[in-house]
Amino acid sequence: MPTISDRGRAIPASPIRKLAPYADEARRKGRKIYHLNIGQPDIPTPDVALNAIRNIDLKVLAYSHSAGNESYRRRLAEFYRSIGIDVEYTDILITTGGSEAILFGLMSCLNPGEEVITPEPLYANYNGFAVGAGIKIVPVTSYITDDFALPPIKEIEKRITPKTKGIIICNPNNPTGYLYSREELHLLAEIARDHDLFLFSDEAYRDFCYDGAEHVSAMTLTGIENNVVLLDSVSKRYSECGIRIGALVTRNREVISTALKFGQARLSPPGLGQIAAEASIDTSPDYFIEVNREYTARRNFMVEALNKIPGVYCPKPKGAFYTVVKLPVDDSDKFARWLLEEFEFNNQTVMVAPATGFYSTSGLGKNEVRIAYVLKIEDLKNAMETLAEALKVYPGRV
Amino acid sequence: MPTISDRGRAIPASPIRKLAPYADEARRKGRKIYHLNIGQPDIPTPDVALNAIRNIDLKVLAYSHSAGNESYRRRLAEFYRSIGIDVEYTDILITTGGSEAILFGLMSCLNPGEEVITPEPLYANYNGFAVGAGIKIVPVTSYITDDFALPPIKEIEKRITPKTKGIIICNPNNPTGYLYSREELHLLAEIARDHDLFLFSDEAYRDFCYDGAEHVSAMTLTGIENNVVLLDSVSKRYSECGIRIGALVTRNREVISTALKFGQARLSPPGLGQIAAEASIDTSPDYFIEVNREYTARRNFMVEALNKIPGVYCPKPKGAFYTVVKLPVDDSDKFARWLLEEFEFNNQTVMVAPATGFYSTSGLGKNEVRIAYVLKIEDLKNAMETLAEALKVYPGRV
Fold it and tell me: pTM (2 decimals)?
């Protein structure tokens, strides 16, 4: 029997999926599980998107252009310009989810063995894509004591080697919810310019900023127009994660034409998803106001509830719909598993993502978990009560 | 300005897309172009698929399981069993097109630097995926003089090195239309077993076999159950190329669980496409009878028309909807470009794919082009007339 590849073995288990068998078992026992572990919002997809799908008038579901339908790219460029990102449709490659934008961005810019620096906690799937692309993720740790602000620039500079080709940020951040400030982005722009690095900016959560806080897109930074590669997605903006539509956007002609070559090899991004995504651009502004109001209320409720639990610290995130929380536990992996295997409160339990999987540096995150506030407040309330009860009785409490 | 990756530069230009700018220019001049260069069928997508999409009753277009919806995998396993491929739904990973099945298959089984042997002419995008996966495609040439039959086994064995991890075949073959016989598959099974190699079998065109010829799936070969990785797609079977749904199917538990890790990193395959693909399983048998009748007629017409042109030789392919044809020209790349830039007959011209892009060995394919018979006979008739006229006046005729 032939053996599989070492790189296959090297992909770390997904922190949000590795507990699935225990969740299945808990469900078999009749437990209700509150899913705080995954970023699948319960917000309805806009009607304009659903109706576009219901009204398709096609006889053949044919390949689209490898860069995505021109009509969609043109409308998307208009949309970007309306939010201050000045690009042409030729600067856009439509991808199969934000996932493919990340993979194509890394593969187009980095050779195998080269390095990209990123603040940790980090989006766990960067690790999987790094294995696929044969590149190295070099972490620079951010700390819950700073509410996960950008680490000092000198810490980033220390990690630059001849193999470093770029920096990747997720803004607002998954998993921390941190929103990078204009000042922080200027510091990143400087370092990218001075060291001739790509700045990959994953802005999938751009629309989820609270308390009137401003989102600064890396695409608006001046002087590094050829360094910035925007990695985007419609998944969260329109609550249509399943259609798998994202975009790689850059003014760097070499990068976009190289990414297109990877795009041509896979023929085209999903056609039906592109129809939904293009129609979504017409979503009423009221939709976003309502979504923002809802998430603000959820966040406020959750942060307050968590910080009331003895020994727990939750920063107040300004963006996305995640938070990394400090818990008084010995080992967040053990705790998360115990919640599913051993614990119940009124026959219910919660599922959280151990933060260890969001750190590249081993040993970090053992007393932290990521919580996604993607449930309605009534459910969040039950979930928070359940978590508080669990922490009272968890044998590994510290 | 940071520089892009060498691997980005290494991806060869797509033989079916590199002529697009000349086609655009010809169109601007008002030329009608017969597209014999791409495998986009004009056959309607089955109504059951379109209706499933039109009738979606979802409020949130959410992520599906990373391996694909369980309901779809279960129905697909039933479908495979109905055609003699005995698998369980847990042997199936739903992928984003057959493209992702190829990429995940190669990445799961081969380390960077390792090799996979394939008969050439080959599916050109294997080259792009090989660059992405950092592996090497080792060609073994098949010849038009043998109608592109499997090269002698000793030629394949000669190319086995310590780095060889597998053999990849496309059956029926894109670009040649060759359908591998049971005997040829047994020879491949023997070599895979004796040398402990994976046998990747790309069967996207399984349903397109003519003259009553039997398709033998590599999944039905005995004694190498853990070696075979089936790479499949619904694109051609149901004429729904644009939904981007394929599958990686294998009884090798290590391969399927590794491929799933790559699948988890990209979250899920397209959700709307899965709905269409699952519904497509209910397509009436009459649909396939009609499609087969149509393609058989197109092939018969085209082969006869081509072989009537002086200096042209076209084998009679038993499968898929392509053929690689020998033309009396100096250079198929020049000829294909000349057709678009210089030639017209009744203000129309044809677009063909130079065969050079389907060979890995440089210098081969200079007097061959790939022709896709995806047009209705009336259009094929005009296209063949136009090609015949072109060959009369082409300055590089040999």
Answer: 0.96
